[in-house]
Amino acid sequence: MYLATLVIHSLLRWAVLASGIAAFVRALAGARARREWGTADSRAGLWFVIAVDVQLLLGLALYLGLSPITQVAFQDFGAAMRNSMLRFWAVEHIFGMLVAVVLVHVGRVRVRKTTDAVRRHKLAAIFLGLALLAIALTIPWPGMPAARPLFRAL
To answer: I need a surface site. Which of 15, 26, 43, 49 has the fewest CB within 10 A?
Structure first.
């Protein structure tokens, strides 16, 4: 169960990034062109929210029960804080991703409550851009102490 969830979580990151970048670029282009907010703009944001939420659920399953790495970290949290790899998985990764999830959801609500089309695009670009930044900073890219492969297979 652990390996399958880990592989899906690893592969889904690309859907999260792709949908987030697509929604961000769409919002930025809409703000620059001062165009009306349309159904395609809403759908782009919705797909990003869905991808982020599914990724969050898989990540929580790993974090709270399936991952042997977090199980080791939870056994002695003080020692885990002195180990850069354990600290990354126990604190930094989940914190950054939770920040991203909050930004995505708060941004979506703020965009839906705004009636001015240009303001909608600007708000979407700001919140989606910040969420993508938080995600990019806390993905375990190759070269980091807690590095993971870009593509993982069963």
So the answer is: 43
DSSP string, the chain: -HHHHHHHHHHHHHHHHHHHHHHHHHHHHHHHHTPPP-HHHHHHHHHHHHHHHHHHHHHHHIIIII-HHHHHHHHSHHHHHTSHHHHIIIIIHHHHHHHHHHHHHHHHHHHHH---HHHHHHHHHHHHHHHHHHHHHHS--TTSTT---SS---
CA distance 33 to 47: 23
Establish if 147 belongs to a structural domain.
Answer: no
Residue 99 lies in a domain: yes
Instruction: Spell 62-74 as b/e; 16+ CB within 10 A means b.
Output: bbeebbebbeebe
Give the predicted TM-score (pTM) of the model: 0.92
**8, part of any domain:** yes
